[in-house]
Design goal:
The complex is a heterodimer. Chain A is mainly alpha-helical. Chain A contains 15 helices and no strands. In chain A, α5 crosses α8. The longest helix of chain A has 34 residues. Chain A starts with a helix and ends in a 6-residue tail after the last helix. A two-stranded antiparallel sheet of chain B has the order 1-2. In chain B, α4 runs parallel beside α9 and α7 packs across α13. The C terminus of chain B is likely disordered. The chains are: A mainly alpha, B mainly alpha. Chains A and B meet through α1, α2, α4, α5 and α6 of A and α2, α5, α6, α7 and α9 of B.
Chain lengths: 282, 299
């Protein structure tokens, strides 16, 4: 039948187009992984090329550099990033979910005003406020510290918005049931309604962790001493014009990206729902 | 005992819940915004701060400012021109057909958004290396174009590099937005249109695009925001010093003036101008798409 043949042809063309484009998108990541087996000098001189894309030998010397190179500074950076991701994500989840929950569940004087403020703040790029924020940080002694690096991110406007959209849908019966059992409002949140928002926590945990792991401008300003740098800032210091640090840069970049890619493949659902749920209201 | 009882009163609980935001708003937004406004009228030198009136505003028009504005505007326009239509097309393709295959492709498109700008920038620097053997220049050679110096070659090359990086990183994210927009369109509409004899392109223009309007609005609004506030991509490529300002952005200018040259007053003025631009464009955008009209009708 001609029509089904035409259908099959369009099916093939469609997936061919998708497949080729997807390969194109995957290429830089594969190229990065393959480049970890090449010398930094060659990379600096020729860049990433087709002719020498496949490494001559799989020599893990560059990966070893991550532990031994520059007195093991890379391990320091990795630790710093892990510590910051842990505390920034945990604290921000706690505060943002409480605010979003409060806005979504209760009717109280000033609620709409506060919600408008949340939306307003979402439209203010934090980059613009780095000067006064930095001045404040100096005054309170937060320069070059972990807490100074995560301070402005303790309450995420976007996460508030997300949790609020989620909390609006929680049936009031749960709160009433808790009150009858003699729980106060905070225990209701802690024991009953909070756990109901588990999917929202999952989605926001992923999003906030990713933001923290890849955060650039603020840590660039706050962290000064080499030992205190986070991964992106540390890697950035290796991007010297002469390319003498490329051995460490490439394997370091790969090592910084692998965990997040692995987490993505295991928790894909949460990555994607974090982007879409409640995000778009026409 | 009394403060504790006050906290536990049902009427005060909501305020306790939203308290973290109130504090964060005052400390991390309101105070810095007010300080920025004040500093924009000052000459801020460590140790001595003098009020200079509108002098900073008068000095705004400089070569650097125009360069940053041009780069920001062009980058924003180009990223929207690429990162709205392309993801729509791929979203439509991925919205029907083999589920498994679609999921795999969706994941591959999304992958680049996971890596940090530093990592992405590093790979792009190497792929767009100025040598004739580098991946990009080798492809260009096939169609007879001689090797291009992408980083240092000029404004066009620099912009191309930045837009390519943005496309690589954000196509998958916008794709997800459009996919969820598509899934909200009732299947019956397409069936009805098909029965009325509408072909695939008519269905796309008459049903898909109009019903995706809220998503298009959302994506272009965050693109304006991200486009004008862009800094990191350019910083990775040029470390804050691009030849002839080909990679200078508004935030880059703020960073350069504020942190590299220590001129907090002038930097604050730039910051405010950027904030006004982003706000005005977002509002115009929302207005053009009839966002407020719809909102008030619903209310």
């Amino acid at each position: 039948m001609p029509s089904s043949q035409r259908f099959r042809a369009s099916w093939v063309i469609k997936y061919l187009l998708l497949f080729v484009t997807a390969l194109l998108f995957l290429f830089p990541i594969v190229a990065l992984l393959l480049s970890t087996f090449k010398t930094g000098r060659d990379l600096m001189r020729y860049g990433i090329t087709f002719t020498s894309l496949w490494p001559k030998s799989f020599d893990f010397k560059n990966w070893g550099y991550l532990i031994t190179g520059k007195d093991g500074i890379y391990i320091n950076w990795y630790q710093n990033s892990l510590i910051l991701v842990f505390f920034q994500t945990g604290l921000s989840l706690f505060f943002s979910s409480a605010v979003g929950y409060g806005l979504g569940v209760y009717r109280f004087f000033g609620r709409n005003f506060i919600f408008v403020l949340v939306l307003f703040v979402m439209l203010v790029p934090l980059q613009i406020l780095i000067l006064p924020l930095y001045q404040m940080l100096i005054v309170v002694g937060g320069a070059d510290t972990y807490w100074g690096t995560l301070l402005p991110f303790l309450v995420s406007p976007f996460a508030i918005f997300f949790f609020r959209q989620y909390a609006v849908g929680i049936p009031k019966d749960y709160l009433d049931a808790g009150r009858i059992d003699g729980l106060n409002e905070y225990k209701i949140f802690w024991r009953i309604t909070g756990p109901l928002m588990a999917p929202a926590y999952g989605a926001m945990a992923i999003l906030l962790a990713q933001q923290s792991w890849n955060n650039f401008l603020w840590p660039l300003i706050v962290m000064h001493s080499t030992k205190m740098l986070t991964l992106p800032i540390g890697l950035n210091t290796l991007l010297t014009p002469y390319g003498n640090n490329y051995d460490m840069l490439i394997s370091g970049a790969a090592m910084a990206s692998l965990p997040i890619i692995l987490v993505f493949f295991f928790f894909q659902k949460y990555f994607l729902s974090g982007l879409t749920t409640g995000g778009i209201k026409g | 005992m009394r403060p504790r009882r006050l906290l536990n009163r049902e009427g005060s609980a909501p305020y306790v819940f939203v308290a973290p935001f109130i504090v964060a708003f005052l400390v991390f937004y309101l105070y810095p915004i007010v300080t920025t406004v004040i500093m924009s009228f000052q000459n801020v030198v460590p140790g001595q701060t003098t009020f200079v009136g509108l002098k900073n505003y008068g000095n705004i028009i400089s070569g650097d400012f125009w360069d940053a504005l041009r780069v920001g505007l062009l980058y924003t326009v180009l990223t929207i021109a690429v990162l709205v239509p392309l993801p729509i097309i791929f979203a439509v393709l991925l919205n029907s057909g083999a589920r498994r295959l679609n999921a795999v492709h969706r994941a591959l498109f999304f992958l680049p958004s996971l890596v940090s700008v530093v990592v992405a920038g590093t790979i792009f620097r190497l792929m767009f290396s100025s040598t004739e053997k580098s991946v990009v220049n080798a492809v260009l050679k096939l169609i007879g174009i001689s090797p291009v110096d992408w980083l240092m070659g000029g404004g066009f090359q620099a912009m191309f590099l930045m837009v390519m990086l943005a496309t690589w990183r954000w196509l998958g994210v916008n794709l997800i937005y459009f996919l969820s927009g598509l899934q909200a369109i009732p299947e019956e509409l397409y069936e009805a249109a098909q029965m009325d004899g509408a072909n695939i392109f008519q269905r796309f223009w008459r049903i898909t695009i109009p019903l995706l309007k809220p998503t298009i609005l959302f994506v272009s609004t965050i693109s304006i925001f991200g486009g004008f506030a862009m800094f990191e991509e350019s910083y990775i490529f040029w470390q804050g010093n691009s030849p002839n300002n080909v990679g200078l952005t508004m935030v880059g200018l703020l960073y350069k003036r504020g942190f590299a040259q220590g001129d907090f007053g002038m930097a604050s003025t730039y910051g405010l101008v950027l904030m006004v631009i982003v706000f005005a464009l977002s509002m115009i955008q929302l207005k053009l798409f009839g966002f407020f009209r719809k909102e008030s009708r619903n209310a």
